[in-house]
Amino acid sequence: MPHTLSDEFERLRLQVRHFVQEELEPISLAVETREQIPEPIVDRMRQMGLFGMPIPKAYGGLGLTTLQEVMIYEEITQTNGCYRSRIGTSNGIGSMGIVYDGTVAQKEFYLPRIACGEWSSAFALTEPNAGSDASNIATTAVLNGDHWVLNGNKIFITNADQARLFTTIAVTDEEKRARGGVTAFIVERGMPGFSVGAADVKMGLKGSHTHELIFKDCRVPAENVIGGMPMVGQGFKTAMRVLDKGRLCMAACALGAAQKIMTLCTQRMREKRQASTARKESQAAEFMLADMATQIFAARQMLYQAAQLRDDGKQITSEASMAKIFCTEMASRVADDALQIFEEEGLFTAHQIEILLRDVRLYRIYEGTSEIQRLIVSRGLLKS
Ligand code: COS
Q: Domain residue spans in the chain?
């Protein structure tokens, strides 16, 4: 697979690796228990440009390719997964709709603010009756003069507490729905009729919060349709394209977490060997470790190739779904085996395995369940 990585990128990768080892990992347990990333750490991420990774350089971002971006996510997920979520939701699903389909004015206004981390963004699609079945959303937007009026509720919205901008998907034509009747809007915190509900109490990614969003006669200026008037009705496609790439990033997070788990298991088994406390089931643990390495190797090839295909301008809807299925399900198996290797001690938070086990489980649900990914892959096959 041809991929050349520039010296500039390698410097960034090394910088992120040191940042993870020296600044993120030492406080990752504290972040887990306090359920909060300290703001000075977020500032460091801003300084390093991490909030602008996939945003084009013309708008103040780093302009990374997809392959480079997934490689950086692999680095960042060598520690608590919530750090990635804080950055990746904003420069990923929260803002990519503007990168893909936004007007020049929208790009010029919003992207530099997002790229430098001054503004965070979030992606508002999921609703109580429209999780996997995204085209079933009930949030409506009705044009009234020079404003759209939005009504409805969104749930499980990651980073809603931090975000200033919400890429919000709403129905603008009940008849057409996913085929010409759904529109993507830029909703800003503070717009009349918009509010953020209480944080959800959830399993995993404790330092990354999800909330309900409430739109009650929320007035959004007409110019805040992503892509302007020509894009009214085209928001479902925008959302699906955003998710295509989001799924590659999710796969990268799972891969990074699996790598981290394998590193912890390797260290653990070396320590046991040195202390000669290895019990007779150690060969079983060795086999588990070998299976981890094999699956991680396969997952990495698959993800890198899917990312490279995207960088080559190919449609990667099926490949993104396959990579997400494989990487996230692999990470769950790896985490489960790691608990066996760590035995009782794996249950203790200090060893991190139980944190990682919970976190990677979420990746099989976030940005489309494994079942939805399988549906996308099989539909693609049957269609072609
Ligand atoms: N890129 C561009 N366009 C896409 C697309 C993609 N990846 N996927 C679908 N579309 C287009 C289709 O081509 C179709 O338009 P045309 O009729 O003009 O061709 C339109 O969107 C409707 O597509 P489809 O018929 O496939 O829609 P469905 O309602 O059957 O739903 C799935 C498709 C199941 C794939 C979608 O609902 C989905 O991804 N659900 C999961 C949502 C999700 O991941 N939620 C997680 C929370 S958000 S973080």
A: 7-115, 120-234, 237-383
Cα(148) to centroid of ligand 1, in Å?
A: 24
Per-residue model confidence as pLDDT tens digits over 115-125:
999 999 999 99
CATH class of 237-383: mainly alpha
CATH for 120-234 is 2.40.110.10
376 lines ligand 1 (CB under 6 A): yes
Nearest CA to ligand 1 atom 10: 237
32 lines ligand 1 (CB under 6 A): no
Three-state SS string over the chain comes to CCCCCCHHHHHHHHHHHHHHHHHHHHHHHHHHHHCCCCHHHHHHHHHCCHHHCCCCHHHCCCCCCHHHHHHHHHHHCCCCHHHHHHHHHHHCCCCHHHHHHCCHHHHHHHHHHHHCCCCCEEEECCECCECCCHHHCCCEEEEECCEEEEEEEEEEEECCCCCCEEEEEEECCCCCCCCCCEEEEEEECCCCCEEEEEECCCCCCCCCCEEEEEEEEEEEEHHHECCCHHHCCEHHHHHHHHHHHHHHHHHHHHHHHHHHHHHHHHHHHHHHHHCCCCCCCHHHHHHHHHHHHHHHHHHHHHHHHHHHHHHCCCCCHHHHHHHHHHHHHHHHHHHHHHHHHHHHHHHCHHHCHHHHHHHHHHHCCCCCCHHHHHHHHHHHHHHC
Q: What is the pLDDT of residue 282?
A: 85
**Closest residue to atom 18 of ligand 1, CA basis:** 179
**Does pLDDT of 294 surpass 50?**
yes
Predicted TM-score (pTM) above 0.90:
yes
Binned at pLDDT 50, 70 and 90, residue 281 comes out as: low
Q: Does 3.90.79.10 match the CATH number of domain 7-115?
A: no
Atom 23, ligand 1: which residue's CA is nearest?
Answer: 178
